[in-house]
Amino acid sequence: QEDEDESPSKKLVTDHSVKVARHYNDRQDVGLAARSRSRIFFMRNFNNWLKSVLIGEILEQVRAAGSRQVSVLDLGCGKGGDLLKWKRGGISHLVCADIAAVSVEQCQSRYEDISRRSHPSERLFSAQFITADCTKDLLSEKLDDAQLMFDICSCQFVYHYSFESEQKAEMMLRNACERLKPGGFFIGTTPDAFELVKRLEASDSLSFGNEVFKVTFQSKGSYPLFGCQYHFSLEDVVNVPEFLVYFPLFEHMAKRYNMRLVLKQRFSEFFQEKVKKEHHRQLMMKMMALEPFPSHGKGHQATDTSGEYSHAEEHCGRAGVRLPVGTLSKSEWEATSIYLVFVFQKMS
Ligand SMILES: C[S@@+](CC[C@H](N)C(=O)[O-])C[C@H]1O[C@@H](n2cnc3c(N)ncnc32)[C@H](O)[C@@H]1O
């Protein structure tokens, strides 16, 4: 799949979007049983929990501001991993867009499945599915309803693909923001460039990572604002080129669309704040977002590698701690703590 070793002239025309689309199109939808055997089962659930909390809280704010018919754009929807979250949130209309045609097809058939299984009394949101490179194509020209305006644009684990060039980042941002209603939100999750560079600078080589993820840069010491590429691989999940998103620049660019940054939080901070609320904790249990430790006869921990649960062992040793506790292995925590949550709001 890599074009890196080919002639310099070919290299000049390399468009990473093509690689990204090919990568996601080739990925199989493995189903629940296989997912539950994955080394990063709990981390994936944790990330899903975090998105659920973010989406739930933003929907509450949209409703509090008086919106009844909520329209959402899921930018980089993938196979539709967030469809049930939108169903739970009771939205009215969803537009799903992604560069990977196979993912968009799977997203649409997942939507049709949910629709078939829904009780007739619970009206599922209407939906449109668009295959498009959102760093190049203008989505507003592809909407079935040319007048449609969105309450929310959700861009989960996607925006970093656009920072390949200024034009691409600009088009992705335009797609995210130009059809937002005044007061509407642009929300998402993306790696924190500061954290990536900090870990790179602390490493003896051009890579860092552990048994679940690996990040490899091409050089270090100098980081261009656009096109600062690194390679990210996460156990059997992602293995594609990504680009640093220098957040102050992202924030500056968003101002052109009248967007004000209202929240930027590392996953670790977001978790620590949200876990204080009982209903978020209950959702964590339901979504199996943390791994029970010790597992005591209920199967093995996610890994046998020594030291991966030393933090949990230490915690369990404290007086008054009820067992089992919920945790993530150190490697999973190191991987997920790279990310941040952002929320922008369109000013009127
Ligand atoms: C890590 S997946 C996240 C999928 C989904 N948002 C989720 O949270 O489950 C990243 C997605 O971004 C999509 N993507 C990457 N570059 C894109 C582009 N230029 N235009 C549209 N989608 C893109 C990929 O095809 C992939 O589905």
From TrEMBL:
Q: At which residues is there a site annotated mRNA cap binding?
A: 79, 85, 110, 160, 242, 339
EC category name: transferase
Q: Which residues bind S-adenosyl-L-methionine?
A: 51, 76, 98, 133, 156, 161
According to its UniProt record, the EC number is 2.1.1.56
Ribosomal protein listed as a keyword: no
Broad class of the protein's primary localization = nucleus
* Endpoints of the signal sequence: none
Describe the reaction catalysed, as an equation.
a 5'-end (5'-triphosphoguanosine)-ribonucleoside in mRNA + S-adenosyl-L-methionine = a 5'-end (N(7)-methyl 5'-triphosphoguanosine)-ribonucleoside in mRNA + S-adenosyl-L-homocysteine
Q: Which Pfam families match?
A: mRNA_G-N7_MeTrfase
Q: Which residues form the MRNA cap 0 methyltransferase domain?
A: 38-347
Q: Which UniProt keywords apply?
A: Methyltransferase, mRNA capping, mRNA processing, Nucleus, RNA-binding, S-adenosyl-L-methionine, Transferase
> Where does it localize?
Nucleus
Binding residues for mRNA, per the UniProt record? 47-48
| A GO CC term assigned to this protein in UniProt | nucleus
Q: What does this protein do?
A: Catalytic subunit of the mRNA-capping methyltransferase RNMT:RAMAC complex that methylates the N7 position of the added guanosine to the 5'-cap structure of mRNAs. Binds RNA containing 5'-terminal GpppC.
- State the similarity comment: Belongs to the class I-like SAM-binding methyltransferase superfamily. mRNA cap 0 methyltransferase family.
Supply the name of the protein: mRNA cap guanine-N(7) methyltransferase
Naturally occurring in which organism (per UniProt): Tetraodon nigroviridis (Spotted green pufferfish)
